[in-house]
Amino acid sequence: MDAVDVHSHFFPDEFVRLIRSHGAPAGASVDRRDGVEWLTLPGHPPVPLTPQFTTVASRRARLQELGIAAQALSLSPPMVHWAPAELGVQLARAFNDGILEIQASFPDQFVGLATLPLQDIDAALREMDRAVDLGMRGIYVATAVGGRYLDAPQFAPLWEAAASRSTPVFIHPQNHIGREVMDRWHLFNTVGFPVETAVLATRLIFSGTLDRHPSLRIVLAHGGGVLPVLAGRLDHAYRQRAEVRDAIAAPPSTYIKRFYFDTVTHHDLALRLLLDLVGPQQIVLGTDTPYDMADPEPLARIRRLGLAPPAAAALLGESARKLLHWEVTHATREG
Ligand SMILES: [Zn+2]
User: What letter would DSSP give residue 314?
Assistant: First the structure.
């Protein structure tokens, strides 16, 4: 079985070193408490830098436990958008270069999704070109940067570049709206993240971004958040409201089916709904490794869907490999 995980998080040494040496003025730090190093970035709870987050050997062992052959590595919220632009550029390069080294060492097991300093769009486009030219397989963006969702005109060149380069875009939520009411009980993550993803996805639909770039390939984290369950409501609004019809040429659900969705739903029925809504070709395996919110049984959940073998193969790995331009090599087949 060739399972490919598109949703995981990793902190290369270079990135952590740069936070340690240059993060403090911007409110970022790495400090040791109770025998564990903690990474603290503005606007996000501290993350324990366990070997799962920082060492390839530990990650490879975990993949073996999970039965997953290969994985795309990404940064995490809050990305590098909290930093002054110059530091953001340095951090993005440090992350991307660190991941490229891993990709070069284990080309059958890991590929990287590039982080971009989107607080400076010109620098972000330069870093995208550099990282993709060096072999990174996609870009990895938050839902909003500096309070602006990525459908804002200032980000138009990003979508243009991704479409023209055939570079997939992975959207990971970063809680922006309603922060003031999601400050307890991990709500920023459990409620904020799924809403945030749906906000950007619908804004990309209604802003015409998907119409302008029919070849864009976008993956939504966490099964698209609450987007799938909103499909009927959005279509109803399309039938009832002139301003919705004026914005786009077809019902919103038509556009929803163009997104890819990962499997990180934590609920068999939620994944079943997604499957019925968009079909197995638009769903790709995700784990969210190694956060505590990762799916502890990603493959078992897929097996319980009872898919026919071709659909299961697409969902487990084939669609992800096509998205990432990642051929199956002999070594991977044997492994
Ligand atoms: Zn994640």
Answer: I
